[in-house]
Specification:
Length: 165
């Protein structure tokens, strides 16, 4: 049984290989070994903890990058998805502007800016992030389109994907 604070869930999550659910755990392989030159995570507590767990037995450095932080939810922070219009919130084409929440196009621009910079550097990196960041990364890599609503393309918790940028 998992004990709170032991990070056992995160340890289990990162034994997964690409596309598996947390119920189909296999030993670490493919994307955690080989020619990685760094781990990149946003400077948010949960992402930092996860990155530390992933690389705990490696000499590969962790770089903290604020541009891959989750979208600022603003006035919707802490609300359940059925308490506000999440489809509109993640609709790139609609381009809604909110009082406090980050505009979706500003969010994509922030992540794209980082990916443009990363693309010009040598090596391979493992990005550790929250689920919403998957939308612009997926679009940038050609797996989806900006116009695809994240709600229609949700990741299951702890899914991993390999992208070439």
């Amino acid at each position: 049984m998992e004990q709170p604070g032991e990070n056992s869930r995160a340890r289990r999550i990162f034994r997964l290989t690409a596309g598996e659910s947390s119920r189909q755990s296999k030993p670490r392989s493919c994307w955690l070994t080989g020619s990685l030159t760094g781990y990149i995570a946003p400077p948010l507590q949960r992402a930092k903890q996860t990155a530390q767990i992933i690389c705990e037995n490696s000499q590969i450095p962790i770089f903290y990058e604020p541009r891959i932080a989750e979208r600022d939810m603003g006035e919707f922070q802490g609300k359940r998805w059925d308490e506000f219009d999440t489809r509109a919130f993640w609709d790139y084409a609609a381009n809604h502007h909110y009082q406090q929440a980050e505009n979706i196009r500003d969010f994509y621009d922030r992540v794209y800016n980082f990916l443009d910079e990363l693309k010009g550097k040598p090596g391979r990196a493992l990005l550790v992030s929250h689920g919403g960041v998957f939308a612009p990364v997926s679009s940038y890599a050609g797996r989806s389109k900006k116009e695809d609503n994240l709600i229609d393309n949700l990741l299951e918790n702890a899914q991993a994907f390999t992208f070439v940028i």
